[in-house]
Amino acid sequence: MQRSLLFGSLSSQPFPLRAVLHSSLSFISCNSSRFIPTRSLSEGQPRGEEKIKRNIPLPESTVPEFGDIATFMRLPLTRHDPNGLDACFIGIPMDNGTSLRSGTRHGPRAVRNESSIIGPYSRITGAAPFESLQVGDIGDVPVNPYNLHKTVDNICELYKRVLRAGCTPLGIGGDHTLSLGVLRALREVKGQPLAMIHVDAHADVSDTMFGEKICHGTSFRRAVEEGLIDPKKAFQIGLRGGGYGPDDYDWPLEQGFHMFPAHDLWYKSLVPLMADIRRELGSTQPVYLTFDIDAIDPSYCPGTGTPEIAGLTTAQALEVIRGTRGLNIVSADVVEVNPLYDVSGGTAITAANLLFEILCSLPGVKYKQR
Ligand SMILES: [Mn+2]
């Protein structure tokens, strides 16, 4: 496929591939459910019928956008209950996997607050997600701020419940350790390793940090080792910044990852790249989309824990997300939003809009003629 990519391409892999680890390792499951379901607003309403009354964001004519409870886009809240929903937003307010600046535990609330400004229909693309899908906000994962491993288990538990209800979970992070819990749930429920589109300044494939196997810089090495993702169907977009040596990118390339560093994407539209990825993955392969807000340049999104200069533009971010339309996205998230480092709210506004665009790109969303 691709033009001049430094690290690799879909059609030619410049590095020798080692044995694929996931073929010889069983994936790790997580603990059983301990969540208490609450009443669903859509209970008793069969899905798939046109007369169904779908959830819509609270209209501004009812209460102004700055008012009422800040669920995501002011959707109905059904705590920990995905029943009857086609897609749901889930907050994951954690930062105890963070290596530098803490504060992403405040990300979900900030993103929900800023999401109030987003209208339910995309005037630009014609997407009408709330006329197509039943969507809600199911609150936050009950994270444990004193125990990262229990937090990962709790993410996995709630995500399994959501997936088994036939609902597509859309996560609001929270540090990137959360992907390990998400992927363990996806692997178990979907019954196969996932394809992955990972947008990030960092590859997050360290073996350990401070001797720890689980933290926000190790998620995707663990995911390969545990057989959660198919590394040959893993695409990392926006990579940059300093490291400790050339090994940082060698390991994922040896596994078969496709890496697209930011400097190869500067000044370019990402529409052709996404077309290549869609061709490679097709329309049925289950895909996990995870978007670390630090993929975007810190001039747009300073509110994050480990910023790196010369990143993607917000326009390129939209091209990536809109370019996933047609893929079988089975879960997605926007992570590493740290509002303590951005008093303007711009980072959270960006994250909220990216999540809305992800919703618009999900399978089953209708587009109107503009
Ligand atoms: Mn990350």
Description of the structure:
- It holds the Pfam family Arginase.
- This is Agmatinase.
- The chain has 370 residues and is of the alpha/beta class.
- It has helices spanning 107-115, 148-164, 178-190, 219-225, 247-255, 271-281, 314-322, 346-361; strands at 87-92, 135-140, 168-173, 194-199, 229-239, 258-261, 286-292, 328-335.
- The chain has a single domain (21-28, 55-361), classed as Ureohydrolase domain (Arginase, Chain A).
- It contains eight helices and eight strands.
- Strands 2-1-3-8-7-4-5-6 form an eight-stranded parallel sheet, with helices on both faces.
- Helix 7 links the parallel strand 7 and strand 8 (328-335).
- Residues 1-29 and 31-46 have low confidence and may be disordered.
- The site of manganese (II) ion has 6 residues, from loops.
